[in-house]
Amino acid sequence: MPDALDVTPYDALLLLSFGGPEGPDDVVPFLENVTRGRGIPKERLKEVGQHYFLFGGVSPINEQNRVLLEALREDFAAHGLDLPVYWGNRNWAPYLTDTLRDMVRDGRRRVLVLATSAYASYSGCRQYRENLADALATLRAEGLEPPRVDKLRHYFNHPGFVEPMIDGVVEALAGLPEDVRSGAHLAFTTHSIPISAADTSGPAPEHGDGGAYVRQHLDVARLIADAVRERTGVDHPWQLVYQSRSGAPHIPWLEPDICDHLEERHAAGVPAVVMAPIGFVSDHMEVLYDLDTEATAKAAELGLPVRRSATVGADPRFAAAVRELIAERAAVERGQRITPCALGALGADHDVCPVGCCPARTARPAAAGADSPYA
Ligand SMILES: CC1=C(CCC(=O)O)c2cc3nc(cc4[nH]c(cc5[nH]c(cc1n2)c(C)c5CCC(=O)O)c(CCC(=O)O)c4C)C(CCC(=O)O)=C3C
Ligand SMILES: [Fe+2]
User: Fold this and answer.
1) Which are the contacts of 297, defined by CB distance < 8 A and separation ≥ 6?
2) Which of 73, 76, 289, 367 is least surrounded by CB atoms within 10 angstroms?
3) C-alpha distance from residue 309 to each of 181, 233, 264, 282 (Å)
4) Is residue 366 part of a domain?
5) Residues near ligand 1 with C-beta < 6 Å?
6) Do strands 273-276 and 185-191 pair parallel, antiparallel, or not at all (unpaired)?
7) Does residue 36 carry a pLDDT above 70?
8) Is 352 a member of any domain?
9) Is 235 in the same domain as 103?
10) Coil, helix or strand for 21?
11) pTM
12) What's the rounded Cα separation, in Å, for the pair 320 and 61?
């Protein structure tokens, strides 16, 4: 038996994710949930609905989260961490509010949240904090005492997140035909967001020039590219590119898009490309459709050999990283001094989002941050 791992004052972990449809009848209501009040053009919604229908109306994200939950429970049990793990989503069942209600009924008072988004941005951080505030408000309106909710820091540069992606890129390179392998370029991809959202991502002093969102991705891309060079002995040129753009065409979003990038690399005589989706924690629909379907078809049309590297998913190293992050944060809450674990040039990100971090276009209450209206 391992020694018990003390994570006082926390009494539960909540895996907080996006949610996705689990069959054809779920697709339209799911997209309505996602886009409520967001002003996404109807045309784009129809198109994205088609992506889901192409896969039987099933997003891989829920199953990925179920597997991650199992991996977390196994890792915790093997390391003496007796912490119940719950799961709730922003846009599909199990819904966050229902899960939090269950948690309160189970007597949980100090909840630590793991969001399935590794980087700073409104969509990947504050929007989840707004969802938490909404859920807490609902519980309070029902006469329940809301628990205290904290959010784990961004883990983009944690070795347990980066190392599985290094392996993935090395494997993807090995999967390319030998004659083009050493000349392959690496295209690190993430979700495009409006440039205005990128520029205001992270704490206010870091705003501008792509903000924390772009800087964090560049740091991860550089870490992976450096490690791949060490492992393979080949210096593969790399670039950070974007995918899954939505919104109105006249609003500028981060570019270049992966498909344009493949075209440009092909025209420049690059013999092969590895697409590495560092912006996604697991195989989401964006990975399955935008990369494995659309970008791969574009590459085939060009005659450009491509491979897509694996996402982290439920890698045991990631589960271990979550346990380490919980233990770190619990120690901080107990007033102990720790050295947080992080790779790269940026260092460990903040534990508590400061006021003005990743602001919304229209200010709304957000929990688990310095501006939280909850304790
Ligand atoms: C940064 C970021 C992440 C990564 C961080 C994180 O993981 O949280 C992410 C994840 C995800 N996004 C997802 C799905 C969608 N996102 C949309 C729309 C948007 N995403 C945005 C950004 C992000 N999104 C933005 C700025 C919009 C525009 C509208 C708005 O300002 O809100 C739309 C509407 C249609 C469309 O426009 O595509 C859908 C269906 C799914 C589920 C996939 C599945 O089912 O497997 C996941 C994991
Ligand atoms: Fe999205």
Assistant:
1) none
2) 73
3) 14, 19, 20, 11
4) no
5) 18, 20, 31, 34-35, 38, 40, 44, 48, 59-61, 116-117, 121, 123-124, 191, 193, 244, 246-247, 279, 284-286
6) parallel
7) yes
8) no
9) no
10) coil
11) 0.97
12) 20
